[in-house]
Amino acid sequence: MALENIYILGIESSCDDTAASVIHNGNVLSNVIANQKIHEAYGGVVPELASRAHQQNIVPVVDQAIKIANINKKDLHAVAFTRGPGLMGSLLVGTSFAKSLAYGLDIPLIEVNHMQAHILAHFINEADYNKPPFPFLAMTISGGHTQIVKVSDYFKMDVIGETIDDAVGEAYDKSGKILGLGYPAGPEIDKRAKLGNPKAYKFTKPKVDGLDFSFSGLKTAILYFIQNETKRNPNFIEENLNDICASIQYTIIGILIDKLKLASKQTGINHIAIGGGVSANSGIRQALKDGEQKFGWTTYIPKFEYTTDNAAMIAIVGYLKYLNNDFAKNEVTASARLKI
């Protein structure tokens, strides 16, 4: 079956981006994303506004993905969609559309776990990119998730560590809010961190046993630190913003790398891959590359466009499931808290 010309349409609508992609035998032909800027005014994603925007965007985004791929919708072999996890209203839009399209075209429907897709994005065919061998460790870091996953095969994954409260993306956004930065704050903190001293201010790393993470305590420590310093100097943030951002990022990266070191030691696995929106962070990427020299890791970092929420990662999972005849029934429903 792998020798056939297999075209898979992937649809992603788990949060605030509406995305569609067409993959041909593992190669990306199109990857279209409609971003929702409206949430910036509220400092975070508003679920009701997100689902309404998905309803407006999904038809033109899918249409554009098929046109860019230079195929007809009748050429599609299956429709893959994000079943979860995510915002229920957003997931319902993508799920309903995918079910209707697959039914109308009389082709298979394939459900995809969003977090698995971030990991399996590493298996999109790309020139000069070496795919990770099994088994490997995957660290998925995003606005809503922080996990370390032992990946033994395409669909044999075990979560061996995860956050017990805030995800790393939330740590960035909440820190940014304290500093008066816009949403999302991660890219701005990353940019300013390059200009600052990462050891200017010391923030205590949360003490969490095993491979689990915690970031809520760090947010509180940053809040109290800023409150105390601005009492003494009302211009403290403005005068030291780059150093503050660099110190926050240094602490967050230290937490992530410490847990990866422990996971590698416990499992004996030195192949490390990252995924999820926060993996676009330049500091985290550099720290992972540095781990090759420091800890003997072999690291795998996907192209930028495959790290944030996108439909190419949904389509590649759809392709792999299609090869296994792993299809969903039309009665399938969205699941906001779907687990790996």
Descriptive account of the structure:
It contains nine helices and ten strands. A five-stranded mixed β-sheet has the order 3-2-1-4-5, with helices on both faces. A five-stranded mixed β-sheet has the order 8-7-6-9-10, sandwiched between helices. The chain is globular and about 65 Å long. Helix 1 packs parallel to helix 2 (88-105), helix 4 runs parallel beside helix 6 and helix 5 crosses helix 7 (236-267). The protein is an alpha/beta fold and 340 residues long. Helix 2 links the parallel strand 4 and strand 5. It has helices at 47-68, 88-105, 114-120, 168-178, 186-193, 216-232, 236-267, 282-295, 312-323; strands at 7-12, 18-24, 27-34, 78-84, 109-113, 136-141, 146-153, 156-162, 271-275, 298-300. 48% of the residues are buried.
Properties at a glance:
41% helix; 10 strands; 18% strand; 340 residues; alpha/beta
Principal-axes geometry comes out as globular
Tally of separate helices? 9
Q: Radius of gyration from the CA trace?
A: 20 Å
* Count of distinct strands: 10
Unreliable stretches covering 5 or more consecutive residues:
none
- How confident overall, as mean pLDDT? 93
Q: Give me the secondary-structure category.
A: alpha/beta
Distance between the termini: 27 Å
Q: Give the strand content.
A: 15-25%
Q: What string gives the helices and strands in order?
A: EEEHEHEHEEEHHHHEHEH
Helix content: 40-55%
Q: Major beta sheet, specifics?
A: 5 strands, mixed
Strand arrangement, major sheet: 3-2-1-4-5
